Amino acid sequence: MKEYSALQAIWQSRWGLPIGYSVSSEELALHLDQAGVELFHRPTPWHMPANLSHPRLREIAARSLPEGIPQVSYDQADLFYTEHRGYRIGYTMLEVNGLPADWVAACNQMDEVWTPSHWGVETFAAAGVIRPLHAMPLGYDPTQFHPRVPVHRLDSRFTFLSIFEWGERKAPEILLRAYVSAFQNHDDVILILRINNFDASISVSQQIASLNLPADGPPIAILYNQYLSRAQLASLYRSADCFVLTSRGEGWGLPILEAMACGVPVIATNWSAQTEFLHKGVGYPLRVRSLVPAEAKCPYYLGWSWAEPDLDHLVYLMRYVYEHPTEARAIGQAAAAEVVQRWTWQHAAQRIRQRLAAIMG
């Protein structure tokens, strides 16, 4: 058992909710707790009721809040608790090339600001954040996502896999158009899409139909709004020969990292936070054609831009991986070997612990 000096921090965030901030916050808190940081939880008010099931997090949440110790606000910047009497750290991310004015103002009320990538640090600084900025990467769970996960292939054909929530940011139309341009129905391939869509105003089937994809094109299979456990998700990654994500912007890019951890070669957009861990030699970075206005329902994107993946380059990369499977497998193996050495939740917690130790002197 390692011995640690006393480190304390208030962790302001949302727990017990089925959203990205909550899931990653719980992982960070548990690993910080294991690393010897005594945590206290300040819940961010939210309109959905929380269901906090983890017993250790429940214990942490029950502790009375002390004064004077550092507070990490891990949430959207407009939800930072700025009245804390002590050192204030804002920890947030966004997927576009700027920040809303109220996010900048909230960040500048902190003593320092963390974001998961160096790309994010540059973006925040350019947007007007004048507090000290630190790249504080997130992580993944290596006990669930690794190359030894049992493989249960859904199809014998060369399998491309993409996992995302349907919407403009993930650019599904670019992926689908590239796939049907790269392959014909006589090619031994299949594209599997694991899609979530919780917006009742959106019809995924209608949007796909509007693309007018060829009726005799290569096969596409869709897993729609199906809950998968972590073990099932890892097995799905391992069932693929290549993972593809045409996202226009990511705050971290966890599915990309999980696929890499499973030893699957990855094609993903070479822009935003995933550039922290995706590069040539461990993946196939997808060129960006240009930055375009970030048009989506999210109000935080208004006035900012994100990447437009290069469709022609995606066609080339998908065809290249299909025609060079031995090389692609080697790239996937190199990715798995690298990410387990650098990008797990334990690594993330240790980086945070080191920074907290420096802050507390």
From TrEMBL:
| Highest taxon above the source species | Bacteria
InterPro entries in UniProt: Glyco_trans_1
Alphabetized, the UniProt keywords read: Transferase
Positions of the Glycosyl transferase family domain = 223-282
One Gene Ontology molecular-function label: glycosyltransferase activity
Please list every transmembrane segment annotated in the UniProt record, as residue ranges.
none
- State the PANTHER family in the record: PUTATIVE-RELATED
UniProt-recorded name of the protein: Glycosyl transferase group 1
Taxonomy of the source species: Bacteria, Bacillati, Chloroflexota, Chloroflexia, Chloroflexales
